[in-house]
UniProtKB/TrEMBL annotation:
Name this polypeptide is given: Permeases of the major facilitator superfamily
Keywords: Membrane, Transmembrane, Transmembrane helix
Domain of life: Bacteria
Subcellular location: Membrane
One Pfam assignment: MFS_1
Recorded topology in the membrane: Multi-pass membrane protein
Organism: Caballeronia sordidicola
Major facilitator superfamily (MFS) profile domain span: 22-470
Residue stretches spanning the membrane: 21-42, 62-80, 87-107, 113-134, 146-164, 176-197, 209-230, 236-255, 275-296, 302-324, 336-360, 366-392, 404-424, 444-463
Lineage: Bacteria, Pseudomonadati, Pseudomonadota, Betaproteobacteria, Burkholderiales
Amino acid sequence: MQAPDLTRDASQRTNPRGSSVIVMLVAATFFMENLDGTIIATALPQMAQSFGLHPVDLSLGITSYLLTLAVFIPISGWAADRFGLRTIFGSAIAVFTVASVLCGMTSTLPMFTAARVLQGIGGAMMVPVGRLAVLRATPKDGLMRAISIITWPGLVAPVIGPPLGGFITTYSSWRWIFYLNLPLGIIGFALALRYLGNTREQAGRRFDFAGFMLCGLACTTLLYAMELVGRNDTPWFLTGALITAGVLASVAAWLHLRRTPEPVVDLKSLRIRTFAVAMGGGSLFRVSISAVPFLLPLMFQVGFGLNAFESGLLTLSVFAGNLSMKLVTTPIVRRYGFRSVLIVNGVIAAISLAVMSLIAPATPTWIVVAVLFASGLSRSLQFTALNTLSFADVPKAQMSGASALSSTLFQLTMGVGVALGAIALRLAEWMHGHGSQTVTAADFSIAFLIVAAVGLLGVADLFSLHRDAGAEVSGRKAKTGG
């Protein structure tokens, strides 16, 4: 039964056109998933008016989506191995698309939350399974280019999401934020059926229910606790209880996943140094970067008094830097190697975040744009290099487990990053001796310094890399004859 699928998959690895279509398809679905996590932020007032609620109450729609992603991403590897890449990825696109339409049709908060949970389930399958499809269809020498393409949604979506959501909400209806996924989903579903093989690496692997429950409990409690810490009215007893439960669940999950023969998330990839470093120090970098899309719009609107449209235009400078760096990422890594690029550029990225603390309401616009553009350049290079290095030395047989683990940690860092931004802002308010009702531009200066420090801390782990780390993917060793 599986022979035709294996043959088809092998043809994909040698068919540049099929491989390119898969890469672009996965990038498009990643963009849909990442965009829907941020785009509704500016639409909350209009949505609240439609539901007859206060805008703050709509935060449940955002939180439920992010928590669902965190819970269901760990089972994506098992699902792909059990039912096949094409089956799971195609089904994920279908579920995500249908749920998007349902989100646009809802008229009450419970209905909207339920639709968002369903959308989160689809998104949780799309992210790691889509990456796995790319990893299996792409040879090592083309891996950097493929990873570069599929990582830009994680950089671009949080930047353009708020202004795009504001534009749609202002000139149309918030419901079109979700309806726009329908044509994209239909095209993606058709391409998945056409180009993806239904390969199964370990079709007989049993489902690790205990591991799934422990991982889900750890992710939800810790993420929700981080969110509560960043609020102005933090319920400290509940937050402490959630952190305690999350830590205990994390320890229990770690012990369980190490001992069980068929874990829901395979930790074997952490024995590979390049993967371990990308997940360790790389996660700290992603946390710091994820705080920026949260802090920048607030600084421009609350601290500087700009409107939402003006704020959105400025943040697009980061997006321009992201795209510009894509043109030279591969040559840079091939010239200098992963270790040198990650260490030097990691420091530059942290400095670019620290420089944001110097921006003031009186700062000329061109200087603000230049700083944001430079930050976009450095974070794009770091993001792509880290994601490529993650899988540079992972054997094909471990790709499924590595992809699920990487996606789980990525989702956690995204959530923790937003919480870090809120916590950093609260610390700044405390240091300046005033409440959250009077946020000033100076508060954001301290917040960006804290975020930059976290990013700089992640660079320390990169020094443990061998100077030829990931050489097979970067091509540097072969080029220099080393």
